[in-house]
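Re: that chain you flagged

S.,

Sorry for the slow reply, it's been a week of failed gels. I finally had a moment to sit down with the sequence you sent. For the record, here it is as I used it:
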Amino acid sequence: MSKTSIVFSLMSAALFTLSGCATTQSLTPQQCQSSNWQEVGYTDGIRGRSGAYFGQYTNQCASVGGASPNRIQWEQGRQQGLKTYCTELNAYKIGREGYDWQPVCPLEGIEKLEEAYSQGRYYYIRQRDLDYLRTPYPYGYGHLGFGYRPYRYGW
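Prediction finished late last night. Pasting the structure tokens below so you have them in one place:
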């Protein structure tokens, strides 16, 4: 296994682990009863989460003690957070960092957001490809010399 594939595997595992932390938070009975649901909704809105995400809170709170989260407060907070998420600068940033754009923004002005995301995503892909080509063995040569050889050249 080459150094590049090992590094890529470790980075993928770390990203997978970190993304699991961000999306799967388990709630205690106290959190279900005393959480500021507007603040929780605001955080979810900034992250681009849809209204369907609230179902996870409902399920978690039902399983830990029967308390129910406040959907109205959560949705009010989420709408405020979406104002931050649904900006051209944020769309560009999300694309440039290689993340997926979530379809949660209002339809007015969506073309500008999609264009900003596309430009950021284009930059991300170009940078990723350049980084790949800068590696010592960009076409998969292993220590045994096997791998992809463009145009059948033996170099």
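What I noticed first: Residues 4-24 have pLDDT under 50 and may be disordered.

Talk soon,
D.
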